[in-house]
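Re: that chain you flagged

S.,

Sorry for the slow reply, it's been a week of failed gels. I finally had a moment to sit down with the sequence you sent. For the record, here it is as I used it:
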Amino acid sequence: MATIRDIAKLAGVSNVTVSRVLNKDSTLSVSDETRQRIISIAEELNYKTPRNRKASGKKDLSSIKIGTVMFLTEDQEEVDTYFLSIRQGIEKECMKLGISSTNIIRMSLLSNPEMDFGDADGLIFIDRSFDFTVEQAKQVKNVVFVDYSPDVETFDSVVIDFERVTRLALEHLVSLGHSKIGYIGGFRTYGKDQREYYFERLMKEKELYNPDYIFIGGWGTPEGNRLMNEAIAKGNLPTAFFIASDPLAIGAIHALKEAGIRVPEDVAIVALMILPFPNLRARRSQPSGSKQR
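Prediction finished late last night. Pasting the structure tokens below so you have them in one place:
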């Protein structure tokens, strides 16, 4: 049976582009020639979309075993609403497909790094650990990574286009006249977070990067509050901030209000709003009728 990956390889485009073309995504910016090439290849390979496959006969999936693999302990997951919402979204969709809730197995590689995935029919890895190797994932035939793509040739993955979202956010702030733009984000054990990486790279392209405006800590609302208070106490406060997540932004905005600093009149805020898996969009703090800077 032909797959999206087969079509993408023959068409010379990404898996995501193929998926969006075949699902008739009108927001996709792609040439008519490329669109038609993808459709023609799909027809030649007799590819059927998941919707058409479903129409041809629904399979009994109740005995399928799916493992959701986290890199957090259960306690850590409870306070990390982003990854928690992803796992809960996966479990909800599995049950919609008829997979028994008892066959949706929660696993933590942080609690058990040498975990044997046993007889799982498929694994969904959510994020990754700094010491994780893809060899562990190869124990199971059907594997998908969420929020991380370790090997695009071997594994399917669902990732966020942080570069595009960060660029859109910064271009918006710059268009409003901001040149002193700060960043508030969280720390990653396995390296620099992508949002921080692209913020730094894009700000350097615009010759606006200032390391004194970077504030990194944890990911929760209290950390957003603490980091913004740190920025206020430091002085020379940026006129705008790009903030890596909603919880951080909520804490940061509270800190600004407690200090008598108006949002967005005195300091503009653009945050990444992480919605229940898999959507994402950028959001700016602009109450209706307010004046932007």
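What I noticed first: The first helix runs from residue 4 to 11.

Talk soon,
D.
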